[in-house]
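pipeline/complex-builder :: batch 7 item 3
reading input block
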Amino acid sequence: MSLQEKYEDFIERLRDVNRFRAINSHLSWDQQTMMPVKGREARAGILAWLASQAHQMMTKPEMVAVIEELNNEIGELDEDQACNVREAKREMDKAIRLPPEHVFKAAEMTSTSIPVWGKAREDKNFSHFESTLRELVSVSRERIEYLRQDGQTPYDVLLDDYEHGMTVADYDPLFAGLRERLVPLLAKIMESKQSIPDVEIPDSASFPIAQQEEFCLRVSRSFGFDHDAGRMDTAPHPFCSGLWPGDTRITTRYDVEDPFSCIGAVMHETGHGLYEQGLPVEHCFTPRGRAISLGVHESQSRLWENQVGRSREYWNMAGAWFRESFDECPEYSDDELFRIINRAEPSFIRVEADEVTYNLHVMLRYEVEKAIFNDGMDISEIPKMWNSLFLEWFGLEVPNDTLGCLQDIHWSMMAFGYFPTYTLGNLYAAQLMEKMIDDLGMEMSELLSEQDTSVILNWLKINIHERGMLYGPNKLIEVVTGKLPNSEPFLSYVERKYGKIHGF
Amino acid sequence: MSLQEKYEDFIERLRDVNRFRAINSHLSWDQQTMMPVKGREARAGILAWLASQAHQMMTKPEMVAVIEELNNEIGELDEDQACNVREAKREMDKAIRLPPEHVFKAAEMTSTSIPVWGKAREDKNFSHFESTLRELVSVSRERIEYLRQDGQTPYDVLLDDYEHGMTVADYDPLFAGLRERLVPLLAKIMESKQSIPDVEIPDSASFPIAQQEEFCLRVSRSFGFDHDAGRMDTAPHPFCSGLWPGDTRITTRYDVEDPFSCIGAVMHETGHGLYEQGLPVEHCFTPRGRAISLGVHESQSRLWENQVGRSREYWNMAGAWFRESFDECPEYSDDELFRIINRAEPSFIRVEADEVTYNLHVMLRYEVEKAIFNDGMDISEIPKMWNSLFLEWFGLEVPNDTLGCLQDIHWSMMAFGYFPTYTLGNLYAAQLMEKMIDDLGMEMSELLSEQDTSVILNWLKINIHERGMLYGPNKLIEVVTGKLPNSEPFLSYVERKYGKIHGF
């Protein structure tokens, strides 16, 4: 077989693996949006079966052999092919260290544990989730044993799953540096006398879901999301699924008493969706056509949610839509709406947090996970650690577990080590925005002066989306911005923005 | 390997094949209910890939060998095991005669041809579908070439796909016998002076989908469909998908100007759904846990739709719900509603046809398909043949193709030979109902006197649903009713019912 024939054999096998994964994503989307309650058990079985099929295909002797052979001749391949071989090799190296029984068990467990978490969250009672969480942690510890390499702390293994190459040795100083400037910034904001309008929604008002949906669709379309190549549904925990070309699905949630609650989620998930819609179709079902990392994915959602969606300029467009859709809300001006959605203050829920406090929420989860996996903290200690860190950093007593350690779905999905990528997303987003403004020679005010966001989307498409997995995350940021990932652009952005709002 | 070990190996492989098929069903459901338009092409690829994966697994040398070995020792297996081996053998014998390229081409083609049909139907223009239909017929002819056995006419091969063992030699006399009594019955009904109330809905009235959905859910629940183990959505062509245990999905459609149009569809699809929900869970992903045939499936939908749902007694329950949901409709009494939904008269659309004319619609399609596959009629002749038979049997000029040969989705899905199973369903349903009434010693009036249909559902569960594929369709009807399938119970039921309504 010639090298090209070998590559063709390899890429067909790899596409099959990724078809299993795309189907898995689709069935997970359905599980969270459409599935009837009694479908739970069979669905868990099917998802686990799909995961183990993909795992089996990835670790078949023929697959292992062809990947090793191609990897030895990687210099002979073109850039796209080399990308696919490199990423497949990395994936395979992990896969062959994980026994199929472990993969099956992990996949099956998460399908059944999500509803247990959901119930505990409803009950506002961590103890209803505790034994399930203990099992999830124990299976993750098995994973660590299988995958851990020299020089890695246990938690590093999990961190690497979500952002390749990042370790506690990277996160610890990065997070410390952020905390150093964010805590005083929050204090300054809280002390500042600059008034932010209080939201005063009459008790009698209600905001039907159809109206909220209409508003959210306008926002999502204004960012450039193609709703003929996607859907928007509701889910208790908003997410985005890039299923296959022409089919990207975002979800959001609505609060009929609060027209503001849906805004962040729809902007955020639209940002994720735009990345999925911008990936190169010709490389679908291969790494070259996939998003490079969770951190970079989050940079896209945060850039659209915060840098664009919470900018003063964007509300010159969205203000009118908001007033039109929510006529039972007091008639706030564009500027008041901008100030309302940029209110910064300590609060309990991460997904509703502002740009200043958001990263503190992430760091808290990071500390808790690090304590579990690197320091052997018992699961039963989680609420105590959570609540005491929360009091220390936010100055607030956590009233119940649903406003505390039960708020996020991640642990029920066995996604330990995931949270830090959210903060990476914020940092990358600011770094990208700074470079975009520089490249285009236009400030945000000019970028949005035509009420048209397409120049932003085009820049991201060329610089990020179309590159798929061509470069690792750190490398991609460096290639695009000329600098390695760092927190300076984010900190100066957030200090500048809040200084302006609060007049300091 | 012992026989039992061989069986275990076989059944695990067979479950995997059926998992692929269940996923295929799910993605087809999504395609018709949820998928964004631009997802079409990639979806077609995925569905074709799934079909060819299942085909590959079914024809792998190891699979063929184990099925042959087990089939040689089938007498040593228990009843359930023998059923699985027998059905797998039959399927495999077909599969090994079909080249994988053919399977892939057929699957991919149907995903793209459905929207072409949909567009032609919108355009009311057969010529927009003609070349696609010609390709579909040509691929079906390839299938016939691969599968045809001694003594089969070409069309027999397709008929066998949908109801095993049935041929034109069976259908021709059966259909002739039906026509012989149905045509005079229709004439008598049309001549009869007995008045059926005219439906007089004010032009200004509209019936919001939410109200119709509420009514449909009540009907569906009253039959015993478990909506915690299923969903009800809308689709242009209503259907039912039994995906996996605890997850059966029915679809219906609504006409905001006509509250009557949704009734038949929801009753019909609920009947299908009840069969799926009643299949033995412990045998899921194996033939023993699957529905035996389309004809028997249709007997369940028709029994609930017609024998139960269009009975005078059922409207003692449903009448009040109807009046409650549709307050812009004139207030018809239970008896008037019963008469309205049993109006029999020549009309254009099969799925909206009454019990008397329905089978004539089916026979017309049967004659057209037979002409194409057994007599080599050209595709371009379809509208002419359709319209001329329609005039002959129904006495009506077909005004456009959407009310004629474009009305049904089946041909766009390459489902030639499918329609006759609808009439089998009507015949089986009447035969089952006659036996049920006999077994229970109660007439329909008594069966429904407690406003409770569960005694009907339980009888069907035990006699039909729980038996899965244990017996072939003809055999099943014989085991349950003591007689081979025949048209007498249907004809006497329909003559009795309409004689009563029209007083002859």
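note: The beta strands of chain B are 230-234, 240-244, 247-252.
queue -> next item
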